[in-house]
Specification:
With about 300 residues, this protein is of the alpha/beta class. It has helices at about 45-50, 95-105, 110-120, 135-145, 165-180, 195, 220-225, 235-245, 260-265, 270-275, 290-300; strands at about 5-15, 15-25, 30-35, 60-65, 65, 80, 155, 185-190, 200-205, 210-215, 225-230, 250, 255-260, 280-290. It is elongated.
């Protein structure tokens, strides 16, 4: 079975500058693929090539096994997209903008406009001019346009941009529903690893145009660095006891004792018993996990 979305050795060069370099990835039906990278890492350029908005220097993009090109215009009936700043007719209302887009997309059901406004919590802004919307609601309108024709595939560039925390949660739940209940395939870029990790089934990390790593989200727990953090009334003596036992302990930035020795991380109960037996009972003992953002920064700076 062929993947729904495929990038094959995709590159884009601009007068000696490599925006994207030899990126290959595959996305299956119903997956949510998080494309993670800093601003300027090549995310938007990759998405524009996937949508046929710019021509690759090398490689090719495929949707449902068909190569992206002028000859396959019919593919876009199955695709919804949002790239960079959402465009809208500023002097028309939210409802009027969606009605125009419904006709452009040849959606026969007039109720589709109301349905998508309800999905994106835009109904109360239906009669408000698009030019007067907040950044977050402008983003909602852009996502609504992408969803209006009930696409099988969504390709979204920074869909959480401008949304407040409530909006981020609402859009996250909507994407989960679309992917897990309706089988919609979602390819979304972001610079927020922590947020994307809550929704994506697979994450690709891009940096300076190169795909550094692909991770299934269930693998994250095994990739994040872990440490055992200990506190005690007699810190120096407790740390000396741990080092004497081979646990390579140090003081961290908060003044607590820290070790990344695997045995200590895996068996904190043994460390507690050992410190008690040595006469330095811990007042605090916890296994802490690396933040997702720290992991992301560690990967791109290796």
């Amino acid at each position: 079975m062929k993947p729904l979305i495929q990038l094959s050795h995709l590159s884009k060069h601009y007068k000696g500058f490599s925006a994207v370099e030899d990126v290959s990835l595959e996305i299956e039906k119903g997956e949510i693929y998080g494309f993670i990278g800093l601003n300027g890492s090549g995310k938007t350029t990759t998405i524009k090539m996937l949508l046929g908005m710019i021509r690759p220097s090398n490689g090719a993009c495929y949707i449902q096994g068909q190569k992206i090109g002028l000859a396959n215009y019919s593919l876009w009936a199955k695709v919804g997209s949002l790239v960079e700043t959402p465009y809208a007719y500023s002097e028309l209302t939210v409802k009027e903008n969606l009605e125009i887009f419904r006709r452009l997309r040849r959606v026969s059901d007039p109720a589709a406009v109301q349905t998508v406004m309800d999905q994106l919590k835009l109904t109360k802004y239906a009669d408000k001019k698009a030019g007067k919307l907040s950044l977050g609601n402008t983003q909602r309108l852009g996502i609504a346009k992408a969803l209006l024709h009930k696409p099988e595939i969504l390709i979204l560039d920074e869909p959480s941009n401008g949304l407040d925390p409530t909006g981020i949660v609402e859009v996250r739940e909507l994407f989960r529903y679309l992917a897990y209940e309706l089988g919609v395939t979602i390819f979304m870029s972001s610079h927020l690893l922590g947020e994307v990790a809550k929704i994506a089934t697979k994450i690709g990390v891009i940096h300076h145009g190169q795909l550094l790593q692909e991770i299934r989200t269930e693998q994250f727990k095994d990739l994040l660095n872990k440490r055992l953090v200990v506190d005690a009334k007699e810190k120096e003596k407790a740390m000396a006891a741990l080092n004497h036992a081979g646990y390579q302990a140090i003081f961290n930035a908060t003044g607590r004792i820290e070790t990344i020795t695997e045995h200590a991380v895996r068996h904190p109960d043994e460390i507690s018993r050992y410190l008690v037996s040595e006469g330095f009972p811990p007042t605090h003992l916890a296994v802490e996990e690396e933040e997702l953002e720290s992991y992301f920064l560690r990967i791109i700076t290796q």
